[in-house]
Amino acid sequence: MKKILMAGMMVVMALSAAAQVKKQAPAGTTASIARGKVLYKQICATCHQADATGVPRMNPPLIKTKYVLGDKTKLIKVLLLGLNEDVEIEGEYYSNPMPSQATLKDEEIADVLTFVRNSFGNKAPAITPGQVKAVRATIK
Amino acid sequence: MHKMSKMFVLAVIATAGISTSYAYTGGPDKPGATEIPVKTDADNAGLKLPAGFGALKAIDGLGHTRHIAVTSSGEIYVKLDRPKDGKGILFLQDTNGDGKIDKQTGFGNYGGTGIYVKGDYLYASSNTEVFRYKLDAKQHVINTETPEKIITGLIDRHQHESKSLTLDNNGNIYVNIGAYSNSCQVKDRTKGSMGMKPCPVLDSAAGIWQFKADKANQTYGDGVHYATGLRNVVGLDWNQQQNQLFVMQHGRDQLHDLFPDLYTEKQSADLPAECMYAVKKGSDCGWPYIYYDPEKHKKMLAPEYGGDGVKTAGESAEDPVVAFPAHMAPNGLLFYTGKQFPEKYRNGAFIAFHGSWNRSPEDQAGYFVVFVPFRDGKPSGKWEVFADGFAGPGPVKSPGQALHRPCGLAQGPDGSLYVSDDVKGTVYRIVYKAK
Fold this sequence. Notes:
The structure holds two protein chains of two kinds.
Chain A: H1 2-24, H2 27-48, H3 66-69, H4 72-81, E1 87-89, E2 92-94, H5 106-117, H6 129-139
Antiparallel strand pairs in A: 1-2
Helix pairs in contact in A: 2-5, 4-6, 5-6
Chain B: H1 2-16, E1 22-23, E2 38-39, E3 53-59, E4 65-70, E5 76-84, E6 87-93, E7 103-107, E8 115-118, E9 121-125, E10 130-134, E11 148-151, E12 165-167, E13 172-177, E14 207-212, E15 224-228, E16 233-239, E17 244-249, H2 255-258, H3 265-270, E18 274-279, E19 283-284, E20 290-293, E21 298-301, E22 322-324, E23 330-335, E24 349-353, E25 368-372, E26 374-375, E27 378-379, E28 384-387, E29 406-411, E30 417-421, E31 427-432
């Protein structure tokens, strides 16, 4: 019994150590997520909700959708240009227009998108200010 | 833990409520007469109602059912937000009279919100057009495939797109065309962006248009721009006693997000009022230049037009008949003319509040049906919550948590009150049980 307990504890410790290593790996990403979290609350949370579940029929959820986790260029464009078309996610439609966030700096857009892509159960690579800058250049 | 104990209590209540209750719904002019008893659900369909009332789920799981209409024989038409299997209107029948829908058919390959039965026609709207279907003596649609298109070309820009409708007794139909904007900013819903003056949205939206109920292919030029300055109206009804149109406006959003220096988060959660207006031809209710403060009881200059939370404005704009708390989203309005409910409810207003989404970090509010007593066409008392519990037992932090959201209201021929829910597509029927 004791042995099992010990083994179990060791597994837990090993797992948490692994999780810490995983967290530590992208140091810049962690800071970007922290900055993005503040921006999300200020700019996004009213419509997309604090828990990113959105508003039925109106504002889409940001949880595990292809819009959030998929193509970075498309996602950056949604923020720079806004979006005024019906969005379909798992058979549900969301119709409210999203205003352009082009007045945000490249770094701010990168931070908030990196936060969203790594929160609410999402896991996707960070978005960098350079990537935002490159997309911004194509639409100017 | 708190949630668990609440659920336990609910379970106990549900189990204890087995004692069968019947509603003696009577005929149209026979209050309390015993015709076919409708059995209410043991848990009153999960609703909290005033003493003496009961409820049942007539049907569940229809999808996003928006507005609802009930025929003279108690059969139901509901409008779906989007067509399901090519059917945007569902026709629901209870063939054995037990109150539960046991036959369902559909037609109309378009989504939308508005649906209304008046005389020999069923009227239904998409987000850009209005159709009507001829009814037979049983108020069944004669030909579901060939409606008359009576109104076309209305604006739909993905915001406030519902074309809710009602009719008067003189052959006119009234259609809401909601503003494709929150507050007519140069840049919609963008922090600090100021309002356009004059607001160009007002020429083709943010108002009520009156059309002929029997004329084909009408558009803006054929209609009367009946009332303006209404941001978005989803619930509206013709008051038969006053012979006048009453509307419920969805007030503006995001005062704090857009003008954080002028409004706190708390103020933004509590402002502005959701207003009921009695409108007449030519009424201007003031949007986007003003909003109504339910605490100060004043029309306030909107920050997009130089307002600061203190300056009043809009002297010529209509005053609301009733001002409700902010953001609760009134989606259905019905003046009760039935005789089943007690005297106090006669000619009063029921309002279905869909429930808020922008009161964060406060709990969301609404998700209930309220009642306002009326006498001689004017409110004769304070509004009260009539039916609650649609959203479920807990507080709603985000609208996605709500199990059901009341959207449409209709009155049955026996005086039952029907409520449609656009989350799961439940149709509730609320009845008064004889003492």
